[in-house]
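Q: Structure tokens for this one, please.
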Amino acid sequence: MSSHVSFAHVDTENAALVDEFLPVLKERLAGGVFIGGEEVDRLERRIARLHQVEHAVAVNSGTDALRLTFRALGIPRGTTGITVANTFVATVGALLSEGINPLLVDVGADENVDVAALEEAITPDTSVVVAVHLRGLPAEIAAVREICARRGVHLVEDCAQAVLASAGGVPVGAFGVAGCFSLHPLKNLGACGDAGVVVTNDDALAAELRLLRNHGLRDRDTVVRWGENSRLDALQASLLNVKLDHLEEWTRRRRDLAARYDELLADLPLVLPPRPEDRVHVYHRYSVMTEHRDALRAHLADAGVQTAVHYPIPIHRQPAARGGQLRIAGRGLAVTERQAGQILSLPLHPLMPERDLRATAREVRAFFESRPR
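A: Here is the predicted structure, written as tokens:
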């Protein structure tokens, strides 16, 4: 049996940064500014610069990043928003919460939106396309942008798993009218609680988002919109600013570990994560595909290797979808459903020791070598 290989890494990551966290937390506690303030402003400037856009607007979650973006864009209730079914529930839930009717299209071999299926699905009723960059691999976002521009549809990028990912040298979030990021603790750049951010080059959109996240207040006493409370805590911003100092190094490490997995697993009957030449994958997850997923996962668990499945039940198969609010585009979701039965996420995180990666690869190999030919 191999030594225990953990899948999650939040405790390890945060423990490694305690000596950097404590001084900034003490400073925030002594300063008495807990909502907004310079740390939030600094975080926004740094994220905007990283993603080569004019504005970043911090909010309290990735879900609110999506919801408030739809509202700030003025997307009419009752219109159609196109997205995919192999995403976290927040993508579709945010559409529904703003009264936008989700239409689900299939994905390609890279698990991201099938561009041809998307083009076929757009109608005059379509108001927004939400392109998900799943697992840290950008979608074919330049093609998606061209379709949306030609058809007069807003493009919003769901970048929840893709901080620092890029396509054609352009960071995700800079293709659409807005890019929405989750900074949940499990993300590549994760707070110690919920957090999110919207990036955009649209001055008016950024201004509207800043109003909506703060009750619609123009100043302390003047409400100009009916907004809500979606402000980011200064404590969380302080911790995120510490982590931002390490993000590029962590991302290189993720990519190096993924390349090592690719080498060690290359000759096995597995579908490995794609590496398109024009897209930079940041490996929020290193997910493989096999028809023997459940048996492989059980073997790895017996060997002490933790794995996960993201996501085993597509959105249209969830109990909440039985009410008929979700529609499926004409091509159906055959690829989405096939992949849902085959995907398996192997352990990968920036602080992962090489020995854990080798142990995981060794057990994957042992599983396939033990099977009848």
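A few notes: The longest strand covers residues 126-132. The chain has twelve helices and 15 strands.
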